[in-house]
Amino acid sequence: MASNSGKGGADYDGGRTTGFASPAGDAIEGPIDLGEVLDLRRPHRYPVRVLGDALRERGIHPGDILIADAAAPPADGRVCIAMVHGDVWVCQIAYKRGQWWLRPASGAREPLPVVAEDDIEVWAVVAALVRTEV
Would you list the domain boundaries of the chain? Predict the structure, then answer.
C-alpha cells in the first residue's frame, strides 16, 4: 500500500500487493541519492549548467547539468570545461602531435592547442551528465 511521504507524493516499498508476488520484487531499489551516485561530496566535483547547444551531437543539450571533475586527468575524446582567454568553453579534448587540443563541437572554430602561457587551460573533465527535462 502506498504511504504519504509528506511531500505530496507517495512511496512504494513493494509490500502488500494483491494476487501473485512480483518476481521483480527483489529488484526494488530504495531512494537514489544523486549526491552519492555522482560523488558530489568530493571537493573537486562541480555541477555546471549547459547554456548553449554546441555539443548537441554528443547528446549534451541546453539546460543539462554536467558534473565537472577538476582532479580528473584529461582523456582523448572526453568532454571538458576549459578556460580560453577568460571565457568558459565546453568542448572535446584531443591528444595529437604530442599535445592536448580543444575541439569545439561547432565547425565555426578550429581546434585550439592547450597552452597555459596563452591563457588556455583545461579546468575540468566532465564525469557525468544530468538531464532534468526529457
Answer: 33-130
Asked if residue 57 lies in contact with residue 103, where contact means CB atoms within 8 angstroms, the answer is no
Are 134 and 64 in contact by the 8 Å Cβ rule? The answer is no
18-66 pLDDT, tens digit each = 666 666 666 677 898 989 999 999 999 999 999 888 888 889 999 999 9
**What does pTM read for this prediction?**
0.71
The number of CA neighbours under 13 Å toward the Cβ of 25 is 9
Cell matching residue 105: 563541437
One-letter amino acid of 72: A
Between CA 93 and CA 54 the distance in angstroms is 14
**Which residue has 585550439 as its cell numbers?**
112
Beta bridge mates, 49:
65
Architecture of domain 33-130: Ribbon (2.10)
